[in-house]
Amino acid sequence: MSIIRQTDPDLAAAPLVGQAELWPPGSMAPHHHQRHQLMYAATGVVHVLTAVGEWVLPPSRAIWISGSTEHELIAKRHTDTRVLYIDTSTYQMPVGEYCVVIGVTPLVRELISACTELPWDYQVESPEGRLAQVLIDQIRALHQDSADLPLPSDPRALRIVDILRREPANREPLSELASRVGASPRTIERLFQKDTHLSFGIWRQRMRLLIAIERLAYGESVTNVALDVGYESASSFVAAFRSVFGNTPARYFKT
Fold first, then answer.
1. Alpha helices in the chain (DSSP H)
2. What is the DSSP code (8-state) at residue 145?
3. 36 CB burial (10 A radius; 0-12, 13-18, 19+)
4. In this predicted model, what pLDDT tens digit does every residue of 135-174 receive, in sequence order?
5. What are φ and ψ of residue 155, in 5° steps?
6. What is the pTM of this model?
7. Using the 8-state DSSP alphabet, how is residue 143 labeled?
């Protein structure tokens, strides 16, 4: 993925700057910015990876990436993305290395688009500065989403992660998966609980649902996606989806 920016956003004079970026399929190597980032995919799906987890960003969601958080970006298809860079000292926002997915309202979507067109040298006390402040106020009020997949650190657990990424419909019990990587089921369960704070079963469900989110965002049918990620029926998939994300798939993708 090759992206040409106007300048280094960390050196911009204005406290909130950004731009629209058209991404071809590919990845951007791990990197970080001094500023916070707010990233929104107007079309397509963006994957964000850090050392501790993965996030999936469909068009109905934005992701807040805290300043100095090292992250990798992946777009599997062409993606029309809006990226904002926010000074860490101007606004009272949470600090620390983390990522948070938030639902995007129609107002926030338009504010993000407008802010990508602001000059990179406006003054805080200006119409542009006031527009940026409105966006920050809206971000603070947005609902945080569960669209993250924390990752274990142990090599044996990570091998299971790789197996299930390649085979999301895999229904092998934990005992068989653990045997494939040379560990006991009890050990694998303990490793997932320690590193992800989720039981293996809940983690597996979330992984399936995040894979499903990407495919649903590209217009695939609920029934086909449900079967391909290991559910026996569309109804059982929708029930699981609602239990994690609080909405049916149809409502989740509405902005």
1. 106-115, 127-141, 155-166, 174-180, 185-196, 200-217, 222-228, 234-245, 249-252
2. -
3. buried
4. 999 988 887 777 788 999 999 999 999 999 999 999 999 9
5. -55, -35
6. 0.83
7. P
